[in-house]
Amino acid sequence: MNTATIVIVGPTAVGKTKLSIDLAKRLNSEIINGDAFQVYRGMDIGTAKVSKEEAEGVTHHLIDICKPEQPYTAAEYQQDARRIIENIRLKGKPPILVGGTGFYIKAALFDYQFSSTGANPAYRRQLEQIAACEGKGVLFERLKKVDPIAAKRIHPNNLIRVIRALEVYHETGKPFSLHKSDETVRPLYPYLCIGLSMNRQLLYRRINERVDQMIHEGLVDEAHDLYTRGLKDAQAMQAIGYKEFIPYFEGGTSCEASVEQLKKNSRHYAKRQLTWFRRQMSVDWFDMSDALVNFDAKSEEIYRFVLRKLDGHSDS
User: Fold this and answer.
1) Would the annotation count 218 as a binding residue?
2) Do the annotations mark residue 11 as ligand-binding?
3) How far apart are alpha carbons 252 and 178 in whole angstroms?
4) Strand ranges, E, within the chain
5) Residue by residue, what is the 3-state secondary structure of 111-172?
6) CA-to-CA distance for 204 and 184, rounded, in angstroms?
7) How far apart are CA 67 and CA 90, in angstroms?
8) Average pLDDT of 207-232?
9) β-bridge partners, 32
């Protein structure tokens, strides 16, 4: 079988998990997590982590590999994901990379080099947290102030390069534009990217319903457990689904207000995800709106499309 990597991307709550499991079963393959926060143990509800029952026997990689106290960078994810992609390909299977953290997925697939020049993993993690919480535009504005030449060369949505430029400036005191870049953007593996979208009103309704379900399943207690362990400032606690409850735990707002803020942040994040993938990667898009009525038909359509694409890929 062709072992080109199948990438499934899209906004939160669009149906990536269900589709990826269905494809993995049909292709006898394995799934690699592409979400920045599902790597942390004890963060099951808020990250919508796949359950054992939902997985239906399909192997999932890079889930529950870190304690929430332990920072985990994009560079570390890159190394781990590439190793797993190669191992799955050696088995003669097409790896299935699934998630919504665009710069993690792109770091795994493309020849991005996390050079040691001016490296500061702790500062890099801090920047990644800012991007996850406030959007990458905040970092790009910072870059324009410290290195306007680099800002003209780097696309605002290319978060990996924006972070790298800020990191080099922070550590060396010299603009990134003065350093020779060893980054290329060629893909390391043949890949096929499937993007899932949905009518915005339907998607936002699903997001709101998902948040309500998370609350019912115990999200507030899950977030409170992290908070009481002294992890308020940890990278893991900056995830959407957890940070919103910190004001509530500190007596600054009500639980209901935190829930509404979570819904709002989730909707905004979904919009940013769609924008990123549409601008940053070559994606074949599928509207999942009708999948709410007939998932099997939509899954079959995408499966047939994948087979046709794989047949046309040169496997290298």
Assistant:
1) no
2) yes
3) 46
4) 5-9, 31-33, 60-61, 96-99, 191-197, 284-287
5) CCCCCCCCCCHHHHHHHHHHHHHHCHHHHHHHHHHHCHHHHHHCCCCCHHHHHHHHHHHHHH
6) 37
7) 30
8) 97
9) 61, 97
Domains defined along the chain, listed by start: 5-110+187-312 (3.40.50.300), 121-178 (1.10.20.140)
253 is in an annotated binding site: no
CA-based angle 67:40:17, to the nearest 5?
A: 160
**Residues recorded for the chain:** 316
Instruction: For the beta carbon of residue 146, count every other beta carbon within 10 angstroms.
Output: 15
**Does pLDDT of 103 surpass 70?**
yes
Residues 6-56: tens digit of each pLDDT: 999 999 999 999 999 999 999 999 999 999 999 999 999 999 999 999 999
Radius of gyration for the chain, computed over Cα atoms and rounded to the nearest angstrom: 19
Query: DSSP string spanning 238-266?
Result: GSTTTGGGHHHHTTSS-HHHHHHHHHHHH
CA–CA gap between residue 199 and residue 290 (Å, rounded): 10
Asked whether residue 173 is marked as a ligand-binding residue, the answer is: no
pLDDT of residue 115: 59
Nearest in space to 239 (alpha carbons), one of 216, 266, 212? 266
Give the number of other CB atoms < 10 A from CB of residue 31.
27
Q: Is 10 labelled as part of a ligand binding site?
A: yes
Q: Is 16 assigned a ligand-binding role in the annotation?
A: yes
User: Can you tell me which residue has the tokens 């924008």?
Assistant: 275
Dmax of the chain from CA atoms? Answer: 58
Amino acid at 7: V
